[in-house]
């Protein structure tokens, strides 16, 4: 199956700093990428949807200035958590899809801990 | 801050038994469905998919059943093994767009 690589898998940062998470589709061109957040033992929560070359669409309640998403190419999307705080600590997961009627493939996830 | 997101229901089965995980979807326009498996600390993995022109599809030890009349999807795992312990999510893709909508997920626990 298609491969989506997410990096880093784990990051610890100080409160107030910014963290960038990368999501790459390795063997296909991803027209759309999705970013999710997941709390322990809870379901995936969609944060935003990004299409290559256009602004991301954020879900209600997600601060777009806090979670900056850039989808500069068909194989790369980045999520930057700006001025991170301990409550931003979570598991962040990206997924990518080739288009309508196709499935989405997920990255390995990034465990962010803000101290 | 307070954790958000749906709390996951749990299905507990004995090793060797068959497991059935259910999912209801709401959009009658959905035409493509996927089951994912998520192990602790990892991203979801694709297990099996089915399109709306089918009502059953079989993989290795897994079968997906689709009932469009009642908008219900199920995943059957034969001879459940400890390695099957994970959270299972269903997802639907409607033909109006490119969005995958996820169900809340079910945690499968396999007892030895």
How would you describe this protein?
The complex is a heterodimer of chains A (115) and B (112). Chain A is mainly β and 115 residues long. In chain A, 0% of the residues lie in helices and 52% in strands. Chain A contains no helices and eleven strands. Chain A has strands at 4-7, 10-13, 19-25, 32-38, 45-51, 57-58, 67-73, 76-81, 90-97, 104-106, 110-114. In chain A, strands 2, 4, 5, 6, 9, 10 and 11 form a seven-stranded mixed beta sheet that branches. A four-stranded antiparallel beta sheet of chain A has the order 1-3-8-7, with no helix packed on it. In chain A, a hairpin with a 6-residue loop joins strand 4 (32-38) and strand 5 (45-51). Chain A is globular, with a radius of gyration of 13 Å. The model of chain A has no long low-confidence stretch (mean pLDDT 91). The model of chain B has no long low-confidence stretch (mean pLDDT 88). Helix content of chain B is 0%, strand content 54%. Chain B is mainly beta and 112 residues long. In chain B, strands 1, 3, 4, 8, 9 and 10 form a six-stranded mixed beta sheet that branches. Chain B is globular, with a radius of gyration of 14 Å. The chains are: A mainly beta (115), B mainly beta (112). Chain A binds chain B through residues 1, 4, 6, 31-32, 34, 38-46, 49, 87, 91, 93, 95, 97, 99-109, 111, and chain B through 1, 3-8, 31-32, 34, 36, 41-46, 49, 89, 91, 93, 95, 97-100, 102, 104-105, 107.
Biggest sheet layout of chain B: 6 strands, mixed
pLDDT < 50 runs, ≥5 residues of chain A? none
Low-confidence regions of chain B: none
Share in β-strands of chain B = over 45%
Biggest interface, and residues per chain? A-B, 33 and 30 residues
- pLDDT averaged over residues of chain B: 88
Task: Give a count of the beta strands of chain B, DSSP E runs of length 2 or more.
Answer: 10
Biggest beta sheet attributes of chain A: 7 strands, mixed
Tally of alpha and pi helices of chain B: 0
Rough outline of chain B:
globular
Which radius of gyration of chain A do the C-alpha atoms yield? 13 Å
One letter per element, helices H and strands E, the order of chain A comes to EEEEEEEEEEE
Structural class of chain A: mainly beta
Q: Shape of chain A from CA axes?
A: globular
Total count of strands of chain A: 11
């Amino acid at each position: 199956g298609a491969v989506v690589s997410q990096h880093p898998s784990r990051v610890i940062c100080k409160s107030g700093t910014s963290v960038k998470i990368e999501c790459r589709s390795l063997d296909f061109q991803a027209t759309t990428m999705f970013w999710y957040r997941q709390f322990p033992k809870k379901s995936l929560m969609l944060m935003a949807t990004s299409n290559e070359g256009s602004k991301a669409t954020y879900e209600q309640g997600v601060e777009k200035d806090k979670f900056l998403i850039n989808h500069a190419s068909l194989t790369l999307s980045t999520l930057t958590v700006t001025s991170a705080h301990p409550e931003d600590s979570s598991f962040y997961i990206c997924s990518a899809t080739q288009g309508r009627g196709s499935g989405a493939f997920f990255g390995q996830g990034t465990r962010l801990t803000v101290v | 801050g307070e954790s958000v997101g749906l709390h996951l229901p749990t299905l507990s089965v004995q090793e060797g038994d068959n497991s059935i995980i259910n999912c209801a979807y709401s959009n009658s326009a959905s035409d493509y469905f996927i089951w994912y498996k998520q192990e602790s600390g990892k991203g979801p993995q694709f297990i099996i998919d089915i399109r709306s022109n089918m009502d059953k599809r079989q993989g290795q030890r897994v079968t997906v059943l689709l009932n469009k009349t009642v908008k219900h999807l199920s995943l059957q795992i034969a001879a459940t093994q400890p390695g099957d312990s994970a959270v299972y999510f269903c997802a639907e893709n409607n033909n109006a767009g490119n969005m995958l909508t996820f169900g809340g997920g079910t945690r499968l626990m396999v007892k030895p």
